[in-house]
Amino acid sequence: MAVLVATVSVLPLAAARAPLRVTVSISPYADIVARLGGELVSVSTLLPPGASPHSFDPTPSQAAGLARAELIVMNGGVDGWLARLVAATAPDVPTVVVMERVDVDPPGAGHGPGGEPEESYAGHAGHEHAGINPHVWLDPTLMLAAAEVVTEELARLDPANGGAYHAALGRLRADLLALDAEIAATLAPVRGAPFVPFHDAWPYFAERYGLDLVLSLEPFPGREPSPRYVAEAVAAVRAAGAKAVFAERQLDPRSAEVVAESAGVALATLDPIGGAPGPTDYESLLRFNAATILAALR
Q: What is the DSSP string of 120-164?
């Protein structure tokens, strides 16, 4: 009997495995993967807090470490640097590209100065995804679709724990749907209000919650707009009756400051990505942005 007990006690250890090593491009996906995997995963994020994915350059140590990942999760479109890094250093590592796996209906385009639709994403620095706006994670219903894709991949790579991943997805689904309803209620007082963000990260969010996306102050992230564009943006902000314009934590705010001062409106700062010292989890990130928008526009 003593031998039998000893043998049985070893079996769980034999079945156990080290946490699945998952590398993600930006922090919203790190939080989602961690919530899906718990202690079954070890998550690392390549983009450091405060950096913009549009201009990020990975370090040699990050490039070397990528090959040790067992799963890579990237958004697509905003993180082309990671796609190039995967191709060069980790071509055999399973990779989820959210923009390739989630059905996305392109949101209504904002309008540039003069009422002309803002230009497509195709060919812009940091945006490689065939002209479709890639900032899907700012809509929690689209983030839920991304989480479903990631869950399937985790279960495929670690089938012994597939049930745990799917159970976590069920809990996450409830949380994200509740978050969606909460954000809608938060922004209900400013539904239909003119909304002027810094760059074109916000069309899914604006469409989901009924904000009137007027234009983006910096249509190409990391590229300072021309004086003519800024002047026309000031006129568009005034014509729309916007109460505020919004800078972003990860990008130089100078053009937003100029537009706000020239148009005589308030300036507030949004955060599309999060990470310390800002919001460190996905739900806090969306709540922060909703509260900031409400305070500036009501």
A: PSTTBTTB-STT----GGGSHHHHHHHHHHHHHHHHHH-GGGHHH
Domain 183-297 has CATH 3.10.20.310: no
- What is the distance between the alpha carbons of residues 244 and 268, in angstroms, rounded to a whole number? 7
Which contiguous run of DSSP H or E holds residue 21? strand 20-24
Give me the residue label for tokens 């990050």: 62
Supply the CATH classification number for the domain 18-178: 3.40.50.1980
User: What are the tens digits of pLDDT across the range 79-88?
Assistant: 999 999 999 9
Which of these, 190, 183, 147, lies nearest to 166 by C-alpha position? 147
CA 293 to chain centre: 18
In angstroms and rounded to an integer, the radius of gyration of the C-alpha atoms of the chain is 21
Taking only the tens place, the pLDDT of each residue in 7-16 is 333 333 334 6
Tell me the domain boundaries of the chain: 18-178, 183-297
